[in-house]
């Protein structure tokens, strides 16, 4: 593959093809590589040992045998080696992944015990080792990981013996007292009554002192992050549908549920898509009822995903901020926390930098929305203004999710104005929020939204 002679290559996505042969050793020459996805092909042979030299790599999806040198990828955040024919032990060097949040090794031929070094992965949110031939007892180190907010799947292996005490004695800590994890069932009963077209339907759950299983409807088209990463040609209509549907789901949680519910982990990974790209909010593992007696204690301890919220004071406006980040990802095609080569700004700071230079709003949009006849002109540019309104540094000046839905519904301008707004500088949200919030207590919602819409230039 001649791709690997490109020294400035930062992202290479070739998944889902019929590529054959071996990954060339020259891959280690791509020192700028951040994302490498070669899964769902027919590659064979060993992964080059020098792959450990790619210190900028944060996302890896490969085929082949697992070399211990993978443990040298110190900045790796996601490692997906699932559904291959990897064999042998899980390298103990995997414990070096201090930034790893997802380790997905399911459906391989891995054998042997779990390495004790796995307890070092303190940032893990997902560990999937299912469908292998791992053996021996489940090590106590797994118990240490379960103190995190983690999705853990060890099914269909050859583990024997009893579960470690660290797992069987799980509790959730709230302030200065302990709450048994079985009380989770009471909260599930509340979440089980949520019925909205843009929220996954909880069908039931299975529970004992060691295992919790939530049963949801199957959503067939993956999640929003996968859709954006795979560089599919998403037109404005599809992005708009996803943005509005996600906002409607959040607005339902905040304004129509009694008591109100905070999602607390709104991100592209947690927005599932069906075959028609209709969005569904998912993963309520961090959700909280606002009138829960433990609400304020819990808010001070868990703050959702890095880059998506605004700790330490978690309110419904934190969900609004996270939604604003998602909306920016939808419009720009950039990841919220992807360390792009030469530009390592968080997506919010990146857009603010563009705003400060008074560039046309259209300049922040995904290149697939610019100049190809599929952009809605003022619609997608004004959407960027709404997103920046949501990520205002002052929570009090952010809109409610009900207001966001109304703004998005009114975001399309008449045909004779097409292209007008997109060539204007981005509107700074602070001025908009200041103007909108002066008499917030005395204004009706419609008046509030109309004023915000006007100042966003929609």
From TrEMBL:
It is an enzyme of class 2 (transferase). Residues 410-419 have a biased composition (Basic and acidic residues). InterPro entries: Kinase-like_dom_sf, Leu-rich_rpt, LRR_dom_sf, Plant_LRR-RLKs, Prot_kinase_dom, Ser/Thr_kinase_AS. Residues 410-458 are annotated as: Disordered. The keyword ATP-binding applies. GO terms for cellular component: plasma membrane. Residues 1-20 form the signal peptide. It is found in: Cell membrane. The keyword Metal-binding does not apply. PANTHER family: LEUCINE-RICH REPEAT RECEPTOR PROTEIN KINASE EXS, LRR RECEPTOR-LIKE SERINE/THREONINE-PROTEIN KINASE-RELATED. This is non-specific serine/threonine protein kinase.
């Amino acid at each position: 593959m001649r791709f690997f002679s490109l020294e400035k290559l930062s992202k290479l996505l070739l998944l889902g093809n019929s590529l054959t042969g071996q990954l060339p050793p020259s891959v280690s020459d791509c020192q700028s590589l951040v994302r490498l996805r070669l899964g769902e092909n027919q590659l064979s042979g060993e992964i080059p040992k020098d792959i450990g030299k790619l210190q900028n790599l944060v996302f890896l999806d490969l085929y082949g045998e697992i070399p211990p040198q993978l443990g040298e990828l110190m900045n790796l955040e996601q490692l997906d080696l699932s559904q291959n024919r990897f064999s042998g032990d899980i390298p103990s060097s995997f414990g070096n992944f201090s930034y790893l949040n997802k380790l997905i090794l399911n459906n391989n031929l891995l054998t042997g015990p779990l390495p004790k070094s796995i307890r070092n992965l303190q940032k893990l949110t997902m560990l999937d080792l299912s469908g292998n031939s791992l053996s021996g007892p489940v090590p106590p180190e797994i118990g240490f990981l379960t103190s995190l907010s983690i999705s853990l799947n060890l099914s269909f292996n050859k583990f024997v013996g009893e579960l470690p005490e660290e797992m069987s004695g799980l509790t959730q800590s709230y302030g200065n007292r302990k709450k048994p994890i079985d009380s989770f069932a009471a909260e599930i009963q509340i979440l089980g009554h949520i019925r909205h077209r843009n929220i996954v339907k909880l069908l039931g759950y299975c529970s004992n002192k060691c295992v919790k299983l939530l049963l949801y409807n199957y959503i067939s088209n993956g999640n929003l992050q996968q859709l954006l990463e795979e560089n599919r040609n998403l037109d404005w209509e599809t992005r708009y549908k996803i943005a509005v549907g996600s906002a409607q789901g959040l607005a339902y949680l905040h304004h129509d549920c009694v008591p109100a519910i905070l999602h607390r982990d709104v991100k592209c990974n947690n927005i599932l898509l069906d075959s028609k790209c209709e969005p569904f909010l998912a993963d309520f593992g961090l959700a909280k009822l606002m009138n829960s007696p433990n609400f304020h204690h819990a808010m001070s301890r868990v703050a959702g995903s890095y880059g998506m919220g605004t700790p330490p004071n978690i309110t419904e406006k934190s969900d609004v901020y996270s939604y604003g980040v998602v909306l920016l990802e939808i419009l720009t095609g950039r990841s919220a926390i992807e360390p792009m080569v030469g530009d390592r700004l968080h997506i919010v700071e990146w857009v603010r930098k563009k705003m400060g230079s008074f560039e046309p709003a259209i300049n922040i949009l995904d290149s697939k929305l610019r100049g190809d006849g599929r952009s809605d002109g003022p619609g997608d540019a004004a959407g960027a203004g709404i997103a920046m309104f949501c990520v205002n540094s002052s929570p009090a000046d952010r809109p409610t999710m009900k207001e966001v839905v109304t703004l998005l519904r009114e975001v399309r301008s008449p045909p004779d104005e097409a292209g007008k707004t997109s060539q204007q500088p981005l509107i700074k949200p602070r001025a908009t929020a200041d103007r909108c919030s002066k008499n917030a207590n005395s204004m009706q919602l419609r008046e509030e939204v109309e004023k915000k819409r006007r100042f966003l230039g929609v």
